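Example 3.
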Amino acid sequence: MLSLRLYVLQRITALLMAPLVLGHLAMIIYATQGGLSAAEILGRTQGSVLWHLFYGTFVLAVSIHAAIGVRAVVHEWVGVKGVVLDVVMWATGLGLFALGARAVWAVTFA
Amino acid sequence: MTSKFLKVTIERGAAAKNAQQVFDVPAHESQTVLDVVSWIQQCADPTLSYRYACRVGMCGSCAMMVNGVPRWTCRTHISKVLDGNAVTIGPLRNLPTIKDLVVDMDPFFDKWVAAEGMHHGGRTREHPIAPVDEKSAARIEASAGIECINCSICYAACDTVAGNPEYLGPAALLRAWTLLNDDKDEGRDAILAAVSGKGGCHNCHSMGSCTAYCPNELDPMSAIAGLKRETTKSFLGRVR
């Protein structure tokens, strides 16, 4: 159900996410403590390649990591297997990526 | 022990829990769970099926669920597991029941084979015996795992096996790990491939029931973690 390839992919994305989650939390605390308005935040993030890369990588890692995790949960708890299990995994990953990418695009480019 | 009789519930039939039968069994000092089951078979109901052989914790035949926990019944004192003066005994979890307390061990042993849990020799009688350094890190790992008696208690305890029938399970993976660390075994690539498949070591969630319930105090969970490390190293080595 979980092959070596998926296992490695999930571990690598976990490694990527660890510093990104800390950075994200620090950013939330900084932005709210400092009393930045939405417009001020957007003023800093829009057009920034750095923020685009930061949250772009985050969204990609989350999509891959969560899709593989959901695959394991759905298989063990609901008994889904075979092609349907692959479809659930890809739908979860692509769905999360679409939602996340849309947000990253809005905050850093649009 | 306060009561002279024990209230023993046995889960009977081919489908456990469908037919529970209660027996009053005389209580004795130093009585094991296997003694209790044997008394029922010999003195109350000769049709009760169960399995045992050595009675001293070596053969791994007599494992059963005792109050929902997998145990070697020949080495478990009834006084340690009684709930008041009652106990419920059933067939091992995660394996098909043949009858009463006897389960079909085939899936368990088939997975040993699937995990390459056999010796992979490369030498003939013409070769010298492979030297084994008993102090090497690999040998220490191998020696820690070879006292497995194939009782299937870890397999019955494992929630990953319960949710994922393809999963090879702790005992088979522990055997693979001991062979991987054995200087006399030359099946490294075959073992790593076997434990990397769909039911391989990467399905383990490290919940640790195998290590918690192993009657010989072995540590399959750490062995599986070792397999995860070795397969990942080998995978990343191939990618580079």
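Chain A has four helices and no strands. Chain A has a mean pLDDT of 93.
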